[in-house]
Structures are given as C-alpha cells and as structure tokens.
Structure prediction request, 396 residues.
Amino acid sequence: MKLVYLDNAATTKPRTEVVESMIPFLKERYGNPSSIYSIARDTKVALTKAREKVAAAIHANPEEIIFTGSGSEADNIAVKGVAYAYAKKGRHIITSAIEHHAVLDSVKHLEARGFKTTFLPVDSYGMVDPGDVEAAITKDTILITIMHANNEIGTIQPISEIAGIAKKRGVIFHTDAVQTVGHIPVDINELGVDMLSLSGHKCNGPKGVGALWVKKGVKPEKLIDGGSQEYNRRAGTENVAGIVGFATALELAVKEVEYESSRLIGLRDYLIKGILERIPHVKLTGHPTERLPGNASFCFEFIEGESLLLSLDRVGICGSSGSACTSGSLEPSHVLLAIGLPHEIAHGSLRLSLGRETTLQDIDYVLEMLPPIVNKLRAMSPLYEDVPLEASSMSY
Ligand SMILES: *Cc1c(COP(=O)(O)O)cnc(C)c1O
Prediction:
C-alpha cells in the first residue's frame, strides 16, 4: 500500500548518509573517547569533528556545544540548570503558554519548588507579543525561555526582538529551536539568544541525541553528575555514533536549507489551499505566513481528531492530532487551547508535517483521500445533522 508520511514534526526518517556515517562507530570504531589508546583517540577525533559541524550549523563555537541525550534533555538543562545556578540572583522565570512539554514541565517543576513563573499568552496565531515579555520582566527575573517555532501549529516567534529585550534587561534568554534548525536558516548571532536547544531526529538524524548551545559566560548547573565529559557540563560516555549521525544530518540539512525550505513552502501552501477549498468548516491553525515550511495544521469542526487519524492510516497517510506526546490522553492540546479554540474544536485537530521525502504526488493523494473521509466521519456525527454551510461557529 501507498505510504504517505506526513508526521515529520514528530520524527523524521534518518538519511542514508546519516546511517552510513554512524555504522563504523557501532562496529570497529568503538573506543571510549576518554581513553588514550589509538582506537579511542579515533573516536575522540570524530567527536571533535561532529562538534565543529553542529556548531557551524548555527554559527557557534564548538566548545559552546553540550551534546545531550535528546532535545528534551537540552531544554531541561537550559531551564533547570539556569534556575539552580542563578537562584541567588533571582527566582522568576518567563515562558509562553505554548512551549513544548520539555520546557513547560521543567518550568512547572521549578514552580513546585518555589520559583515564580509567568506563562505568557499568545494571540490567535500563536504569536508571543514582545511587549508582553518586556512587561513581565521584574528585578527577580533570571530566565526567559520562548521557543523558536511551535511543533504543533508551526508559528515562528519574533525571537531576535525578544532577545533584544532580554539583553537590555540583563536576563538570560533560551530558545527551543528543535523545530527550526535544519529547516530554516538559524544563526545564534542574528537571533541574539544565550542558549538554544537542538535535536537529532527532527532533522533526519538519529533519535536519542540532542545538543544545547550555551553562550560563553552563561553557566547552567550540571544536571547529570558523574564524569567530566562535555567540558564537565554533562556526565556520561558520549553517544558517539548518535552524535556523528546528528552532525552529518545537520551538515547536509544546512547545505540544502534554502532549496528545501522553499520547496516545502510551495507544497505546504498547495496543501493548505487545497484543503480549505475542498472541505467546509475547516480552520487553518497557526500563522498564515510566519510558519514552518513543513507545517500544515487544521481544526475540522464536527470531527474527532483520533478517528480522522485512524481513517487516514487506513489509506496509508500518517498525520497527527495534538502532539505525539499528548495524544492518547483526552485533554486537547495546550497549544490549541492557548490560541483560543474551544475544547470541541481543538479535539478535531490534524497536523500534516511535510519533510525531505514529501512529493507533490503525496500532497495530491491527501487532497484526493481526505475530503471523502471527512464527509463520511461527519455523516456519522450526530452534531453534524443539517448543519448549513454558513452555520460554522468558526469565524475566519
Ligand atoms: C521534539 C521536540 C522536542 C523534544 O526533542 P526530543 O529529542 O524528542 O526529546 C523539544 N522541543 C520541540 C519544539 C520539539 O518539537
């Protein structure tokens, strides 16, 4: 059967070059980079090269990269590490209501331990207002953490503007760039941030590896104690194969980013237009233009997101509803609630996230299969009986 994978915001397929670059480090090049004989020196050299590549992808210095076990771990180090290290200076943290749970739950963890927190609202496009950030800063604020782009609705935040405010007020600023690095150009100098999180498997690299870039002079507390790996900032023998694969993925993604992002924007806009034209009572979620090249997300009225996913799966289309982490629970996504959607509409969400493998034929297949599926599901819905076209509760 045809397989159309449109869940690249949840994870991506590792590129062949990535897998091939990893294999030697799973076989004969197995030395521990901290040892001194030659097979170990060999892995240490590979680690150094990978660090240089990852740093180059975001225009950073290699010694400012901390390799981690995931994007989630990078977020945890940034948020908890800074809070613990700077608690004497202040105890207030600012974030947004639509962060990934790795940030959101780290901030809540700190809140439960006496830190003061501000969860900034977003507008109906999921955009943070830099004026709100400025107004929320107090003498006690030690950290602002706002994601570069949202994983569910794709909205890209005005990070450099917010970073300017943080800098002016002397507050450390972290951004979760897991969805942007390798997908749109990311330059830490242009963004003006102090810390930035990355993840391997969101840019055609392997799972279980991530990185946190920490600007020189910023010193989050170590969360994993033990050895002195990663310049004594994160203990544990390095995942050499994973790190090498991650570096290969990033190097290739950054090389192709201009071409690939404009290709995806073309496919994305064709998909969005096609769905909005063919299906009534659908709302595009997220910003119309300030959005990730691969993100097409919607809410369908009178539809349960879960049943839509199951029907799509039956015809070989992989999408998601809510985020991968929250689906399976009955709570609608915190992101969709934060952009002001009522519960019943947030339940009918569908995210189709495009990636390197996505073709025009894939999009045409979705545009062919989705409308009859939606019609069929709605025909079974008691809520949909006799709803005239203009009676939509959504205004847009
Ligand atoms: C996937 C994701 C993460 C978590 O990365 P993992 O490597 O899966 O732990 C964090 N933030 C965002 C925005 C993500 O999309």
